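TL;DR need C-alpha cells for one chain.
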Amino acid sequence: MSESSGSQPKTVSIPSRRDFLKGSTAAMVGGALAGTLAISRSAHAAGDDVLKIGLIGCGGRGTGAAQNALLADAGVKLTAMGDTFADRLQGSLNHLRQLEAKGEVPTGSVDVTPERSFIGFDAYQKVIESGVDVVLLCTPPHFRPAHFKAAVAAGKHAFVEKPVAVDAPGVRSVLATAEEAKRKGLAIVSGLCWRYHPPKREIMQRIHDGAVGEVLAIHTSYNTGGLWVKHRQPEWSDMEWQLRNWLYFTWLSGDHNVEQHIHSLDKAAWVMRDEPPLRATGLGGRQVRVQPEYGNIFDHHAVVYEYASGVKVFAYCRQQDHCSTDVSDHVIGSKGKADIMAGKISGENQWAYRGPAPNMYQVEHNELFASIRSGQPIDNSLYMARSTMLAILGRMATYTGQTITWDQAMNSQEDLTPPAYDWVSLPTPPVALPGITKFA
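>> reply
TL;DR here they are.
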C-alpha cells in the first residue's frame, strides 16, 4: 500500500539541515518559510511546538514526502508509519534514518518505534490514531478517499498525493470529506506539485491576466517510456501481486492517464480556472504492453475536452518504450502562445521566466506547515478533486469509445472497489474494449 511511480522521483535532492537553515528563506517565494519557522504554540492540536507526522504509504513518493516534511519546519517529527507490507515500511524507515545520520534531515526527527509501525490494510487507521497532527497520504490512489475521510474525521491536517480517487464514487467521497475539512479548518495540500512551482505560478498568472489574449486551445502531452514493473513471485497471492504492481491495475491507479497524466491535465485545468469541461471524446488502447504483468491498463490515450467557452484541450499520453518523448503544455491564445514547461510566452507580450525555481516538492511542504503554524490553513481540496475527475472522465471516454459529459461522469456508478481486502484470489479485471465496454 505504497505509491512509487515514474511520475515523480523516489527521493528529491535536498540540502543538508545546516544549508537549509542558512538559506531556506531566500529560496521561498512570499516568505512562507519565514512563517514556518515562527512557531506558534496554538497552531495545532498537540499544544506544544512539535508537529507529529504520520506517513501512510511507504513507497518512493511517500518516503520523499516524509523527507520534505521533515525539512519544512523546525519543529516536526515523524512518529508513525503504515503500509500493507513490512518490507516497504522497513525500507522507507531505513532510508530516512540514513538521511538523519548524514544530516540531511534534522537529528531526532525520525522518531518511529516498532510500536508505531503498522502493517496491513488497517495500518492507516492505526497511524491516524497514534497521536499524530499531520498525515501524509501516499498509498496507491484507490485508497485515497477512505484514508482522506478517516484523517479528516480525526481532525488531522493532510498532504494528499495525486490523484485522489480512481472512480467517480471516490471523487464524490473526497468532495464530501473536503467540506468537513473546511468546516474543521484543516490544512489540505495536494500532491499536484506544479501548482507549487514558482515559474508555473508566474506564467499562469500572466495567462490569467491576458498575456496570450483569449485562450483558444490547449495542447498537453505526457508521452514517456515505460515505468517499473514488479514480476510476480511464486509466493504472492493475486492481491499481493496487484498491490506490488499497482501501476498496471485500473482499480489501484486509475490507469496512467489518471495516475501520471493528471499532472498535465491539472495544468490545463489551472489555465481554465478549474472550470469543468462540458464533455470529452477519446481514443486509446493496449498496443505494446500486452503481457500479464501489465495488468489491465492501456498504454496510450488521446482525449479532447470541450469547454462551454469553445476552448478545446487536446490531451495525449503514452507509456511505450523506444518512442519519442514529449512532456509539454502549450496554450494558444488570440495574442500569443504560452509554453508552460519552458516558461515562455511568445506573441504580442513576449516573456520568459528568469526567477528562482526552488524544488516544488519541498515548497508544497514548506507552505503546508507554514499554513498550519499561522492558523491560516491552505485548502487544495476542490482542485485536486476536479483534476482527478478530469482524468477519470478521459479514461471513461477512451475505455468506452463514447463521448461522455462531465455530468454523466460525475454521476457515474462505476465502483472499482474489489470484492474484499484480503489475500484470497483476485482475478485481473478484463481490459476495456472501446465500443464494447459500457459506460456505467
